[in-house]
Design brief:
4 helices; three-stranded antiparallel sheet; 170 residues; mainly alpha
Length: 170
């Protein structure tokens, strides 16, 4: 019975990662269909929908590395996902932890799909805040996508999970 529950919870977390991948790829497909590279449509004073391409990682890290980074980030995403599946199988009762790593895996694989199909990641969410001007030109935070949002949410939940685990151990 315990093995069956472990398998059932694994499928739940893999299903969550699949939902992230589907939402990410659907939104990116809509952006690619409706926008050309560099297009921007204001939604509010502080939010635009844009079409941007990122051949690097977060904040365009390694974007100008010459092409090898595409395969490096594909491999890294696949390896990380394999490790995450192992962690999901090893810790099926830790719900916040499993949620966090499922979000990270879904986001990572969403961006891996972009790299395989396009050679870059499609970004489209752009926020502008005056307080960011010292850090980012014009106060525009670098554009991102649903996959990046899922990875960020997963990272925040991992930190929260660790804080809660440390507090519980006291």
């Amino acid at each position: 019975m315990a093995t069956r529950n472990k398998g059932a919870s694994l499928w739940l977390w893999l299903g969550l990662a699949a939902i992230v991948i589907l939402a990410d790829q659907l939104t990116k497909t809509l952006i690619v269909r409706e926008f050309v590279l560099g297009d921007s449509r204001p939604v509010t004073d502080w939010f635009n929908i844009v079409r941007a391409h990122n051949s690097g990682a977060a904040f365009s890290f390694l974007a100008d590395a010459g092409g090898w980074q595409r395969w490096f980030f594909v491999g890294l995403g696949v390896l990380a996902s394999g490790f995450i599946v192992w962690m999901l199988r090893s810790h099926p009762t830790q719900k916040l932890f499993c949620f966090a790593v499922s979000m990270i895996m879904g986001g990572a694989l969403g961006n891996v799909i972009d790299r395989l199909i396009h050679g870059y990641v499609v970004d489209f969410l752009q926020f502008r805040f005056a307080v960011l001007e010292p850090l980012f030109h014009g106060g525009y935070f670098p554009s991102f996508n649903v996959a990046d949002s899922a990875i960020t949410l997963g990272a925040v939940c991992l930190i929260l999970d660790e804080i809660l685990r440390v507090r519980a151990a006291r």
